[in-house]
Task: inverse folding
């Protein structure tokens, strides 16, 4: 029945073949001089072998220094542990003739849930002595040492299996050792080569009719799928329900014919023990199974016993992307082989407590799960199968009158049939154990903290690294200021400016932006007016119920937050007012139904700038205006006075007059973005992209279609809150069109406009070489840039100096943040667990704290 | 970047003597290079009766940024935005003071070869500074200059005339007039007090200023009624600058990304609750740095014997005072009501009472391994370390800055191994579960919960009571009912700018009961501070302990 077997090698004419499991701890056992190192080198990769002599050398510079033995073994165990944790076979080359030293290794193997395998090199004492004598470093090893080794080895031989070795290979004599060959065996649970497609079926508990109905719905005809799909049963075929024999017959025949796999549930396991004559209590529905089986033939009972005996605790399938077991399995147990792995796979983990119904409290292992493989399991009845941290429980309580559920893999589609009736009264009501949200349970620090790499689905940026110090800063801001992470599914990326212009008087000019997109192979771009407000992201749900259903929050109908995830308004009522107006417009425009969603995520600009940035305005921008406004009249008067006295003040007076004019222009520049507001009066929201709706990221929706949707939203807003974004489409290859784009910008910025953002109409676009192009390039107006580069930046010598600015880091940052944002939206769309979405969102925030020229 | 100095005269004692005193000819416009740009001296008027010298500093903004940067990553211009767009080119800041001392160095030291007696004579003086950055406003300007013999006319400059609702800027149009001072004295007053009033946070000044302060302050600073404030600001400025440059840039960038002020975000660390403790540490730091400074300057610079000692003394004085001009706007008014430094009898500060109450509660439970969640500057950790019954003390905070300060306070790097092995400080967040926090006897949340937005409190509850799950949890938070008893606290105000809420006793009890019920704890309440019959104690404390029922089950399993 077990996942492994204990066996000795098969003797062949030319030598013995020793099976060794691909993930195992191989312990070579033999006296000093028995040839262990030679044997290891011959049969295993050099990196698989750790020898005690080598470790002695590591800690003491002398491979034979016996006083270093303890430290040497600490190192050996440490290295072996690291290898085993990483899932790598490890061969320990030490004498290991004493049971204490072997016990440590067996414990190590158990700790990492791998098979301990013993290979004994039983070579005559004389041969060992002779070999040692030939080695300068061991020539003086006393004979009695070898004698002791040999004695201890002999004494050990009979006990090796009992000590815990799951395979024991004993090679007797020099010839046996020399002629042996090793074959690597795969673990029984390793079906990574098997890619399906699969239909994974939840707990059946004797509901034979429901099983047949579900198989039919899945397309199986008499247990075989015409397209060659494979059914995988998560166990608990028997007990409680009306026809356990019928279920067994169906499943066994499918497994027998190769059209299904099956892992054992705790109920089969218990029934199996019953069939073997062990004493088990006939509780939890076992009595029903026993009774139903009474009418079956002895032959069938025998087949059932063998079937149950042969079940493997869990399977790793589809290249390691899928793990199926009965009660769930943490990642470190995937593909492992040990008693506790089997036990966890069958029974899951419990906290040791019992609930008010007297049932054991199950430890919510899935809540902690962060593995790459999807884990599909059953065991715990839930009303509805839902993904949690890449795991899903398919036990939807068919026997309790719920439904029988299957998961199509890799499609990730759920297929279910309702139970025909309540076959068995549940001890406790079915409740969703899927945590993470509804009870306000937080995310884990390990999801975001420290140096980390966020994996994305975007080639070229598939791995985005985040530095520790940036994560630390993001942690502070996220923890202290951000809105509830459940309502923070996205943060907008930073945007790179256009390449520096050399047009006289300009630092930025759209010509470069058009040229850059042309070079990237982007023919059509859209220029969108920049609104000089504050960036705002709005998550708007159709109603509080929709917010509760999708985002698990109780009360708010969405969120309105800044670039760093802070709530835009301190008071929730004002936020709700804004959300309400957007919601109204969505309804009036008929967009809920058209987009088939009950929530929408909008990227927008909120105005005026002074609303959010008032602190900054006062301390920084207006302060500069106030100081310059106060100082120049006096300074100019002094210069004029001196000049009037005939003092040669050179060009100083003219220069100060120019500076005064620059400072005045600066003051004018920031004033354009300030106006008073009262409540929502004077507040404007200019959405420019619908980022996501239920089940879909719209980040790749072309901008012309995006803007068409947005226009309708604005059109149907009766409140006056929403503001349109003016735009102009430009063909980068057409000179006239480019000129029109430049003129549009000149006209707009000439009137004091902030500038524009140029975007590829196709939204997510790659170059011919497959590189992602910038999702947008900002071209800021000449006057607006005074706020950024200082009042006097337009002076020719200043411009000359500023043109030396470096954009590469900013561009790289913009792309990395963009990809993380896209990834967050994709994860959101696919209904991935909160921590996965949050990981990407947090990454954007962390990257925002990277050192880059803040003026870009 | 501009000021004028005028004097009046008579034919016997012409006003144009100003030119001799300043060593600058009234009929020439002269330019001088200084560390921060070109300084011009010229005379808009130069007659027998009136003579005015103008100093105009053209600040080189780029040089300013380069100077401040120093340790940037690979020379990338990663400084804060505030360094590029700021008032330095316009305001009469500390930079102007530096220019003043460099352009008028002889006049400042009172030397005049052409008229050897003139520097020692008082004469009518009028100083006009049209844009003087003055934290503390016109009142403080008057307080600083009037005791020195000046008649002060200081008017606040409006922030933006187009937006009168924004109020006054931090600039003052200043006119100083006196008949009784020498020019040298006047210049030295300006040299010291311009930077003191400026009190800028974002800009860097040269590091040899301490020594210069000692020299420039000779003869007037020791007796000035605001001597403590002057030295405090003058010196503390340097330390905060260093800290900012070293520790805060990530948060600065996040603030900028959000169009926020840094102070809105990097405000986890509050002014010290108990002046004695932190400030002693800071004073030691200051003294240490002053020593280093003296050493670095080399023997040649040591013309004043005992300068180091003086500087250290000043540093101590500087640190041993709280800034009485604290504007209480929230950003720096840390638990202002708590500290209450002006009470005559100095009753035990509330912060101390609170720590004592927490420690007493911990002792009652027999806790040995204790978490201080949200440890801030580490005062409680420090107190716990003094009692050997606490064998393992872990302080966590989400603010790296708080942890750095806590580590400095505890002198972790100099602590003996045995002591050091009892204490750990690391970053954690109560908005996330943290497995490192599991398995402790007790956790303290002292004045922490009120710093979270209410909607995020459930996350903290689960992280502490559900996930970390210590046997005991001690929570303290202000009792808002008591706020009416704080005379200094305006009605309806919370005690600290970052308090997201303050609860009545009933609200706190209701919350605690719900949490206890949900997570299987029992809870008891303890008043901290004088328990007012009407409004209760200033601080309320809840002590949660895992209820027996749960314990038995855990044991049974």
Result:
């Amino acid at each position: 029945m077990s996942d492994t077997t204990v066996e000795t090698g098969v003797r062949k004419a030319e030598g013995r073949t020793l099976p060794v499991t691909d993930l195992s701890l191989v312990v070579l056992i033999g006296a000093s001089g028995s040839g262990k190192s030679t044997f290891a080198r011959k049969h295993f990769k050099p990196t698989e072998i750790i020898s005690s002599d080598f470790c002695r050398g590591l800690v003491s510079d002398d491979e034979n220094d016996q006083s270093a033995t303890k430290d040497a073994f600490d190192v050996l165990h440490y290295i072996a542990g690291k290898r085993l944790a990483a899932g790598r076979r490890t061969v320990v080359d030490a004498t290991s003739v004493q049971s204490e030293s072997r016990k440590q290794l067996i414990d190590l193997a158990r700790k990492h849930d791998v098979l301990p395998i013993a290979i004994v090199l039983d070579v005559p004492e004389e041969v060992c002595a002779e070999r040692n004598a030939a080695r300068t470093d061991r020539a003086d090893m006393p004979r009695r040492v070898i004698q002791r080794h040999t004695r201890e080895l002999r004494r050990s031989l009979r006990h090796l299996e009992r000590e815990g070795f799951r395979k024991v290979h004993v090679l007797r004599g020099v010839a046996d050792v020399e002629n042996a060959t090793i074959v690597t065996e795969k673990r029984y649970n390793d079906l990574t080569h098997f890619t399906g497609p699969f239909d994974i079926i939840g707990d059946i508990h004797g509901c034979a009719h429901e099983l047949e109905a579900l198989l039919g719905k899945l397309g199986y005809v008499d247990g075989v799928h015409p397209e060659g799909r494979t059914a995988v049963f998560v166990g608990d075929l028997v007990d409680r329900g009306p026809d356990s024999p019928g279920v067994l017959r169906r499943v066994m025949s499918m497994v027998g014919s190769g059209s299904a796999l099956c892992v054992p549930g705790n109920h089969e396991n218990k029934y199996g023990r019953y069939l073997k004559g062990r004493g088990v209590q006939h509780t939890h529905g076992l009595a029903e199974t026993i009774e139903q089986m009474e009418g079956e033939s002895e032959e069938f009972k025998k087949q059932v016993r063998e079937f149950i005996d042969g079940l493997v605790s869990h399977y790793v399938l589809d290249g390691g992307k899928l793990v199926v077991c009965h009660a769930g399995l943490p990642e470190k147990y995937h593909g492992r082989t040990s008693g506790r792995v089997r036990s966890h796979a069958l029974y899951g983990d419990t906290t040791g407590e019992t609930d008010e119904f007297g049932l054991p409290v199950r430890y919510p292992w899935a809540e902690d799960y962060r593995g790459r493989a999807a884990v599909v399991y059953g065991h715990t009845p839930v009303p509805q199968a839902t993904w949690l941290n890449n795991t899903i429980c398919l036990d939807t309580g068919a026997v309790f009158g719920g439904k029988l559920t299957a998961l199509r893999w890799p499609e990730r589609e759920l297929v279910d049939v309702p139970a025909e009736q309540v076959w068995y009264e549940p001890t406790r009501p079915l409740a969703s154990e899927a945590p993470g949200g509804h009870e306000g349970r937080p995310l884990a620090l390990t999801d975001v903290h420290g140096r980390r790499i966020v994996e994305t689905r975007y080639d070229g940026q598939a791995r985005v690294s985040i530095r520790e110090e940036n994560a630390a800063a993001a942690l502070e801001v996220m923890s202290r200021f951000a809105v509830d992470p459940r309502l923070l599914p996205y943060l907008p990326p930073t945007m790179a400016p256009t390449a520096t212009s050399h047009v006289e008087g300009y630092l930025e000019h759209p010509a470069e932006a058009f040229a850059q997109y042309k070079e990237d192979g982007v023919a059509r771009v859209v220029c969108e007016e920049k609104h000089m407000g504050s960036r705002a992201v709005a998550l708007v749900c159709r109603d509080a119920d929709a917010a509760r259903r999708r985002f698990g929050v109780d009360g708010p109908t969405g969120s309105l937050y800044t670039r760093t995830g802070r709530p835009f308004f301190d008071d929730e009522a004002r936020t709700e007012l804004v959300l309400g107006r957007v919601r109204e417009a969505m309804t009036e425009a008929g967009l809920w139904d058209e987009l088939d969603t009950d929530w929408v995520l909008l990227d927008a600009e909120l105005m005026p700038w002074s609303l959010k940035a008032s602190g900054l305005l006062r301390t920084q921008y207006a302060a500069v205006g106030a100081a310059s406004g106060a100082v120049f009249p006096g300074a100019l008067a002094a210069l004029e006075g001196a000049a009037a006295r005939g003092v040669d003040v050179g060009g100083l007076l003219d220069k100060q007059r120019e500076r005064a004019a620059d400072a005045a222009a600066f003051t004018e520049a920031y004033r354009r973005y300030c106006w008073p507001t009262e409540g929502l009066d004077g507040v404007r929201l200019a959405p420019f992209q619908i980022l996501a709706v239920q089940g879909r990221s719209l980040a790749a929706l072309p901008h012309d279609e995006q803007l068409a949707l947005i226009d309708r939203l604005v059109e149907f807003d009766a409140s006056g809150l929403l503001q349109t974004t003016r735009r102009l489409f430009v063909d980068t290859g057409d000179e006239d069109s480019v000129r029109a784009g430049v003129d549009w910008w000149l006209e707009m910025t000439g009137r004091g406009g902030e500038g524009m953002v140029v975007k590829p109409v196709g939204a997510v676009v790659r170059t011919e070489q497959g590189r992602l192009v910038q999702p947008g390039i900002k071209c800021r107006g000449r006057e607006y840039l005074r706020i950024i580069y200082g009042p006097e930046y337009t002076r020719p010598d200043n411009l000359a100096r500023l043109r030396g600015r470096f954009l590469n880091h900013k561009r790289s940052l913009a792309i990395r943040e963009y990809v993380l944002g896209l990834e967050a939206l994709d994860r959101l769309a696919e209904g991935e667990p909160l921590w996965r979405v949050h990981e990407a969102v947090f990454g954007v925030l962390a990257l925002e704290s990277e050192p880059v020229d803040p003026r870009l | 970047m501009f000021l004028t100095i005028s004097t009046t005269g008579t034919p016997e004692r012409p006003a144009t003597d100003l030119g001799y005193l300043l060593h600058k000819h009234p009929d020439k416009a002269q330019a001088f290079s200084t560390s921060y740009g070109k300084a011009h001296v010229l005379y808009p008027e130069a007659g027998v009766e009136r003579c005015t010298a103008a100093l105009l500093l053209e600040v080189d903004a780029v040089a300013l940024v380069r100077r401040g940067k120093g340790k940037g990553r690979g020379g990338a211009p990663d400084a804060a935005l505030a360094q590029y767009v700021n008032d330095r080119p316009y305001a009469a800041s500390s930079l102007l003071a530096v220019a003043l001392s460099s352009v008028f160095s002889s006049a400042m030291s009172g030397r005049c070869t052409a008229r050897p007696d003139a520097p020692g004579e008082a004469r009518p003086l009028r100083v006009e500074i049209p844009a003087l950055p003055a934290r503390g406003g016109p009142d403080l300007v008057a307080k600083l200059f009037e005791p020195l013999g000046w008649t002060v006319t200081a008017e606040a400059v409006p922030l933006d005339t187009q937006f009168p609702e924004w109020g006054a800027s931090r600039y003052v149009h200043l006119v100083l007039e006196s008949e009784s001072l020498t020019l040298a004295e006047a210049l030295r007053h300006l040299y010291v007090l311009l930077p003191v009033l400026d009190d800028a946070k974002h800009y860097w000044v040269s590091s040899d200023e301490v020594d210069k302060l000692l020299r420039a302050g000779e003869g007037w600073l020791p007796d000035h009624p605001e001597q403590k404030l002057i030295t405090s600001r003058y010196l503390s400025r340097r330390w905060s600058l260093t800290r900012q440059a070293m520790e805060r840039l990530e948060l600065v960038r996040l603030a900028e990304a959000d169009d926020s002020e840094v102070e809105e975000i990097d405000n986890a660390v509050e002014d010290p609750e108990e002046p004695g403790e932190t400030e002693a540490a800071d004073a030691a730091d200051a003294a240490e740095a002053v020593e280093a400074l003296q050493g670095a300057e080399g023997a040649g610079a040591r013309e004043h014997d005992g300068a180091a000692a003086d500087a250290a003394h000043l540093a101590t004085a500087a640190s041993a005072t709280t800034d009485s001009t604290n504007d209480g706007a929230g950003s720096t008014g840390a638990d202002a009501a708590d500290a209450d430094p002006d009470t005559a009898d100095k009753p035990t500060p509330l912060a101390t009472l609170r720590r004592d109450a927490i420690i007493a509660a911990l002792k009652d439970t027999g806790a040995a391994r204790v978490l201080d969640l949200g440890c801030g500057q580490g005062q409680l950790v420090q107190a716990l370390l003094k009692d050997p019954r606490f064998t393992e003390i872990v302080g966590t905070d989400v603010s790296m800055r708080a942890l750095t300060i806590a580590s400095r306070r505890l002198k972790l790097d100099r602590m003996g191994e045995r002591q050091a092995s009892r204490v750990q400080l690391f970053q954690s967040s109560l908005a996330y579960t943290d497995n490192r926090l599991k398995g402790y006897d007790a956790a303290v949340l002292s004045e922490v919960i009120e710093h979270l937005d209410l909607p995020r409190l459930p996350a903290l509850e689960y992280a502490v009571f559900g996930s970390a799950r210590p046997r005991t949890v001690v929570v303290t938070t202000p009792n808002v009912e008591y706020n009416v008893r704080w005379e200094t606290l305006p009605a309806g105000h919370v005690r600290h700018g970052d308090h997201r809420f303050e609860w009545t006793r009933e609200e706190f009890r209701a919350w605690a009961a719900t949490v206890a019920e949900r997570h299987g704890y029992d809870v008891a309440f303890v008043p901290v501070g004088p328990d007012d019959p009407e409004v209760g104690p200033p601080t309320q404390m809840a002590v949660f302990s895992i209820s027996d029922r749960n314990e038995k089950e855990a044991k049974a399993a």
Summary: The domain at 348-556 of chain B is CATH 3.40.50.150 (Rossmann fold).
